[in-house]
Design a protein that fits this description.
Elements lengths: L4 E3 L9 E10 L6 E9 L4 E3 L1 H4 E3 L1 E4 L2 E9 L22 E4 L4 E3 L1 H4 L4 E4 L2 E6 L25 E4 L5 E3 H13 L22 H20 L3 H13 L1
Helix pairs in contact: 3-4, 4-5
Length: 235
């Protein structure tokens, strides 16, 4: 398959312009939440994540180096309900699909990096965890369907573990709070976990890694999260 990129326009064919508002939006491509920077058509009230604005007809991910994902604006109806293999959320719009393997990824989830560094600690993206997630206190997500288990980030020191799905749910809960869509930050609904580190160091590290992952999944709320997340975590 010849590789090519597509720059998407709104449904009326207008060219989208880069904008940045400190408020929530729903991406009209993948139908997932976004925050802050986006590509927008003002007359049509149409917004796209950066990852949904510019897509490739085919793509690969670190986990599946020898497998090809094909971009689709909407998955065929005969496939039934589909969930993202990274975040486990149901897919309603733009996606990358592997017809041979039956895997699916949101465009933003395709951008999840195999390695991240926060506060000097390296985190690696994993398909499963050997220890409990600091948020849901589970190793696996047993409430998902179709065998989709979701991905997780695990620190090199093995002290910090969290599911990508738990971050997504934390963001969604936070954005449902009263007035969240007009705030200067991205509020997260978080749950305290147990860790050997001191509470301040523990939350500082988690705030840093969550800020990075949130910037991938929501757009780029890094500036707001940098100042607001530590306080939200400690409250």
């Amino acid at each position: 398959m010849a590789w090519r990129e597509t720059v998407h326009k709104c449904s009326s064919g207008h060219v989208l312009e880069p904008k940045s508002f400190k408020k929530q939006y729903i991406c009209d491509g993948c139908k997932e939440p976004g925050y802050g920077p986006r590509y927008r058509c003002e007359p049509c009230n149409y917004d796209l994540h950066d990852s949904c604005m510019l897509t490739s007809n085919s793509a690969c991910h670190h986990f599946y180096k020898d497998k090809t994902f094909v971009f689709v604006e909407k998955l065929p109806t005969h496939l039934g309900t589909r969930r993202c293999d990274a975040c486990t959320q149901e897919i309603f719009g733009f996606a990358y699909h592997s017809y041979k393997e039956g895997w699916d990824l949101h465009p933003c989830c395709l951008d999840l990096q195999p390695k991240l560094c926060a506060e000097g600690i390296e985190f690696k993206l994993q398909k499963k965890m050997k220890s409990k997630c600091v948020w849901c206190s589970k190793k696996t997500l047993g409430d998902t369907v179709s065998g989709v288990k979701g991905w997780a980030y695990v620190s090199e020191c093995k002290e910090y573990h969290f599911h990508v799905r738990c971050l997504v749910l934390s963001m969604l809960e936070g954005l449902k709070r009263e007035g969240a869509s007009e705030r200067e930050d991205v509020p997260l609904q978080l749950h305290a976990g147990r860790n050997k580190e001191s509470p301040s160091k523990y939350w500082r590290i988690m705030a840093a890694i969550f800020k990075i992952v949130a910037s991938i999944l929501l757009g780029d709320p890094a500036t707001a999260l940098a100042s607001s997340l530590p306080a939200l975590l400690l409250n």
